[in-house]
Amino acid sequence: MDKITLTIDGKEVAVDKGATVLAAARAAGVTIPTLCWLEGVQAIGACRMCVVEVQGARTLQASCVLPAAQGMVVKTHSPRVREARKMILQLILSDHRMECPTCARNMNCELQALAKEYGIVDIPFEGAKSSVRIDDSSPSLIRDASKCILCQRCVTVCHEIQTVGALFPAHRGFATTISTAFDLPLGEAACVNCGQCALVCPVGAIVERDDTEKVWHALADPDKVVVVQTAPAIRAAIAEEFGQAPGKAVTGQMVAALRRLGFDKVFDTQFTADLTIIEEGNELLHRVQDGGPLPLITSCSPGWVKFIEHFYPELLKHVSSCKSPQQMFGSIAKTWYAQQIGKKPEDMFVVSIMPCTAKKFECQRPEMYDSGVQDVDVVLTTRETARMIKQAGINLLELEDEMFDDPLGESTGAAVIFGASGGVMEAALRTVYEVVTKKPLENLDFEDVRGLKGVRAATVKVGDLDVKVAATSGLGNARVLLDAIRDGKADYHFIEIMACPGGCLGGGGMPIPTNWPVREARARAIYEEDKRLPIRKSHENPFIKKIYDEFLEEPLGEKSHSLLHTHYTKRGV
Amino acid sequence: MTKIAQLEKSIKKLDRNKGPLIPLLQQTQAIYGWLPEEALRHISEALDIPLSKVYGVVTFYSQFYLKPRGRHCIKSCQGTACHVRGGKNVLQALEHHLEVSEGGTTKDLKFSLDTVACLGTCFLAPVVMVNEDYYGDVAPKEVPKILKNYE
């Protein structure tokens, strides 16, 4: 690759030809502020925060879209640049609904941080302001257009990464707003609730619906048995909300914090992740024996499920009928567990801690009332949960490790890796191999399906059968596989699809920022948990054996079908 | 031929390589007189462009209409020359006579009334254009007589 040399703030920098001035500055250790730019996703030069002074150029240049040129002399913080950036911030703030102390993104807002950094103390521009228009029609996400700075990160993520295309700029000039088609409320649009928009929003214009008050209320109700389940990805990320660098699992401290919040039992979604493996593994074996329909596709991710319901309803027969682990947990907690403690389903209150905004939609689906009442009452994201822990004055990082409660807290390494893209596939292979061959699996690590990006495929020899599998995450990648299935060009047996890039560890409810280095750090924490756990195969979980002996009887049996499996709905676009 | 069949025909004849959305929207508006939601949904599916994006493009350009338009299109010029020669009074007379405000369409779908910034005929100011016809040096009291020419 040809190299180019330029001077940035008096320092010579050599970069590859084609690199932008912004990238060159970063390589030289110079930080240029940005708002609309999103690494590897969007560079549109819209917000102008990244302007720099280039010797010989008449006007300031947006460094995120300016290719570095040989001999270029760039100043990134000259008086002219700083004055321009200040005015840009003042202009953006002049039409921004400033309610910082009561905003969900207070203290984690890119605009607020820059306003502080640039010492903005007044907004000299008066005039029209966008009216407050809050869209709270979605069970997952709340939009406030009066905080939107029109950076279009949400649009790019929704169209380019997720290929959902629910949001786009509409109208013109001052009236421009990020909108759904026909300005439909988000809850009625073809949105899959993945929340990737909320993860990339630099401000508080798209945030998760805050359901914490419902949980506080239930915790204070002496007549309710309030149990909580935690998804695998939470333990690998929640410490970030308490100032820790990404990549540290705090499973025991998270359990302790939840117990201090007042939950009667702290259980683990990983228990039902193991259960999912048993049911889904058997479903796969049945489909292979009965001639299809193949490939079988996982159904754990509710954003993914709604995506196929909207955009590929003709392929729904490929989706596993297994409920997601969250929903299996809900129906088991309110039936089997409720029976054990002598309670009725309506006396139970089930809270889920999920990395996911789409789970808030999933728990309200009409199919998810198999205990007779809503199986999962409230879903909290990682961010909301951290908020509750802080409100309770609990310092998570100083707590002693505690253990999950029995019986719904026991799990395996196979279940923890559900949190990373490829993990469900790997967990299924560990079990399917041993169930079919009746021989112990020597190497448990299926490296071929690991890795967070793109589509990974592998062929695994299980007895006489070559099982062809694939795993991917991000709905744009899912589309590639779905098109191949539709065109008869995908001869896989089993495919894992997760809606969010990287899988659950990159979920729309995870700590902000969530970017690729952060996702990779969380993945490392998850695979270390897997290695650390004494049992690493779902079918070896002793409580899974117990639940089949005492209650479910057999995989895919009658009870399983009524409590652990579901059906899907064809939705329009 | 039904309108949807005409739209189908336009879609078949499109050059897909040349940014097909705006030309197709223009052809669709020529067929319907405006852009009904069903037509936009059809276009979104046929061109494989998300509906939100189709809507974004439609709302960006003032040439596209999301509500039914009148059979006759009135443009009342408010450019500099028409402004100083009483264009505002002519517009008010039009609004009063038609009982619609600027940008509106009469209930019987006979007329739509819009303002424009210049029609390039400043020597005739104030100017009103109805469909392809120019009316120059218009006095507010002449408005009813002009509109009588259209059925």
What does the secondary structure layout of this molecule look like, with pairings?
The complex is a heterodimer of chains A (about 575) and B (about 150).
Chain A (H helix, E strand, L loop, with lengths): L2 E6 L2 E6 L4 H7 L23 E4 L6 E2 L10 E3 L3 H16 L15 H8 L16 E2 L5 E4 L8 H9 L6 E3 L6 E3 L16 H5 L5 E3 L3 H8 L5 E6 L1 H4 L15 H11 L3 E4 H22 L5 E2 L4 H10 L13 H16 L7 E7 L3 H5 L15 E4 H10 L21 H4 L6 H15 L17 E8 L2 E9 L1 H12 L7 E5 L17 H17 L9 H11 L5 H6 L10
Parallel strand pairs in A: 1-5, 11-12, 11-14, 13-18, 14-15, 17-18
Antiparallel strand pairs in A: 1-2, 3-4, 3-5, 6-7, 7-10, 8-9, 16-17
Helix pairs in contact in A: 9-11, 9-15
Chain B lengths: L2 H11 L7 H12 L4 H11 L3 H10 L11 E6 L2 H5 L2 H12 L12 E6 L11 E3 L2 E3 L7 H5 L4
Parallel strand pairs in B: 1-2
Antiparallel strand pairs in B: 1-3, 3-4
Features:
heterodimer, A: 573 residues, alpha/beta, Ubiquitin-like (UB roll), Alpha-Beta Plaits, Rossmann fold, 5-stranded mixed beta sheet, 4-stranded parallel beta sheet, 18 strands, 34% helix, globular, B: 151 residues, alpha+beta, Glutaredoxin, 2 domains, 4-stranded mixed beta sheet, 7 helices, 44% helix
What's the CATH topology name of the largest domain in chain A? Rossmann fold
Average pLDDT value of chain A? 96
Portion in helices of chain B = 40-55%
Weakly predicted, low-confidence segments of chain A: none
Biggest interface, CB < 8 A: A-B, 18 and 15 residues
| Percent of sequence in beta strands of chain A | 5-15%
CATH architecture of the largest domain in chain A: 3-Layer(aba) Sandwich
Strand order of the largest sheet of chain B: 2-1-3-4
The domain tally of chain B reads: 2
Major sheet: arrangement of strands of chain A: 2-1-5-3-4
The N- and C-terminal alpha carbons of chain A lie at a distance of 44 Å
Largest sheet of chain A: 5 strands, mixed
SSE sequence of chain B, one letter per element: HHHHEHHEEEH
